[in-house]
Amino acid sequence: LTVSEATAASLHREVFPSPAPAATTPRAAARQGGGASRGGGEVRGIGGKPQTLDAGRRELEAKDVERRRLLIDLEAQEVEIAQLRGKLDKSEERRGHFEERCGQLEQDVEALHAELEAEKALRKEDQAMIQELAATVQEMEKEQSQAKSMTPALQDFLEEGCGFGLSPGSGFLRESLADELSSTHSSTPQPGLVAKLLGHLQKKSPSAIRQLRPYQRRFVAVESGKMSWWTSSQDHPDQSKCCGSVDLCINPCIVEVDPREAEKFSLRPLEQVRVAGLIASTHANGLYQRAEFRADAAVRYKKDDPELPMVLYWLGKWYLGPDTCVSNAVASKDGIDTQEALTSTREWESLKDSEPGRMRVTLGGAWVAGSFTGAHAGRILEFSTHGSEYGREQWVQVIRQQVELGRNRRASLNLLGLEKALSASLGGGCSEASSPLQTGFC
What are the helix and strand counts (H, E) for the chain? Predict the structure, then answer.
């Protein structure tokens, strides 16, 4: 590209105009400057380039707009960052809830495993209970068959009337023993009747400091003619941790339901009487048990003393003596055949001149033997089925069956004693080893 010198010089003058001549006086210089400003409105820019004021203003405004835009973008970014931080906090919170839920699920799984193990243990206990129930049924059937087998021997003995100073064929003795044998035979377990029960009951405490909440939860086992209780099911059947027990085979008792409370029932000893006041015949003082099994129908209460047994009997009036022979009686009292008449305030008449004491009979109650507080004072054991695995009807049914089982065993032992008396009256013709009454009752 070739440019002429004239054109180049023209361009040079347009780009680089020649400076104005210097003013000779200050006033001239001022006029020259003012005229320059008024004439063109130009300013000398950087590098000597002219720049107008409007262009500079527009540039500044553009930069200000850009700065504002950048500030708006920065605020938007800060808002977005705040939103992201909120989402992060919510994510952390959800994560904490998730970890907490995972912990709860792990605990639930452990609890389910524990329940499964407990269920397995209960199944094992149920199987053992079924086996024990079958063994109990077999034992009772064996006792029943043995009781039936000894009936002919007792009939022969009763027909002869030997051993007790009775005339042959004494009717009341035969009828009394027949009643005992019939009750023994009628106690055969019915199909489907549970002979053993394990579960929880509320037992009333005799402690005075528990009057506001007297009932305590106990694990109770009714089995083998015995009722025992522990603090928890884990302690069963450790006898060293047993809180208390009552043997139904040696303690005559009855089960009573509360007519006002649908969940409560009680177990109390059979009524007893206490004789006191005798001076010469001190051996007759003491506690008399109700006679469950008696060869003499007149006997109502008896004191089982191996050396000097005593009985309270009724033959038109009340008597106290070593037997039912009126001539041997120690004292007598007018009255009908009721417990109220026996324990009334009417005075007893001494039938022995050597007896200066004034006899009195009061109503009392005590367990023959019991491993619990208040056993010797005749404490009534009170229970409630509140929160139990079984209802009151089932508990009462099983306990009554066990009470009946204990009564039958006492009847067997009583008949065993009668068989020994028969053997002695016949001159020892029947030894203990050969006695049909011995088998299965020891």
Answer: 6, 18
Tell me the three state secondary structure of residue 283: helix
Residue owning tokens 């500044």: 60
Residue carrying structure tokens 């200050």: 26
Residue 343 in contact with residue 362, Cβ under 8 Å? yes
What is the structure's pLDDT at 221?
96
**Cα 44 to Cα 42: distance, rounded to the nearest angstrom:** 7
* 80, two tokens: 């977005």
Rounded to whole angstroms, the Cα distance separating 316 from 329 reads 14
Rounded distance, CA 382 to CA 370, Å? 15
Higher pLDDT, 413 or 425: 413
Q: pLDDT grade, residue 218 (50/70/90)?
A: very high
For range 314-332, the mean pLDDT = 94
pLDDT digits (tens, 9 = 90+) for 224-251: 889 999 999 999 999 999 999 999 988 8
* Residue 58 burial (CB count, 10 A): 11
The string of DSSP codes covering 155-192 is: HHHHHHTTTTTPPTT-HHHHHHHHHHHHHHHTTPPPTT
CA dihedral 346, 347, 352, 358 (to 10 degrees): 140
185 close to 164: Cβ distance less than 8 angstroms: no
Confidence label for 206 from pLDDT (cuts 50, 70 and 90)? confident
CA pair distance 383, 266, nearest whole angstrom:
6
The CA-based dihedral angle spanning residues 182, 183, 188, 190, taken in that order and rounded to the nearest 10 degrees: 110
Interatomic CA distance for residues 213 and 170, integer angstroms = 56
Q: Which residues pair with 265 in a beta bridge?
A: 257, 383
Distance CA 33, CA 38 (A): 9
Which regions of 282-328 does DSSP assign to beta strands (E)? 286-290, 299-303, 310-314, 318-321
Hey, what are 217's tokens? 């939860």
Q: Count the neighbouring beta carbons within 10 Å of the beta carbon of residue 279.
A: 12
Closest C-alpha among 394, 370, 397, 392 to residue 381: 370
Instruction: Quote the tokens at residue 319.
Output: 């008597």
Tokens representing residue 298 in the block: 């007149």
Q: Are strands 244-247 and 226-230 parallel, antiparallel or unpaired?
A: antiparallel
Q: What is the pLDDT of residue 167?
A: 39
Predicted TM-score of the model (pTM): 0.46
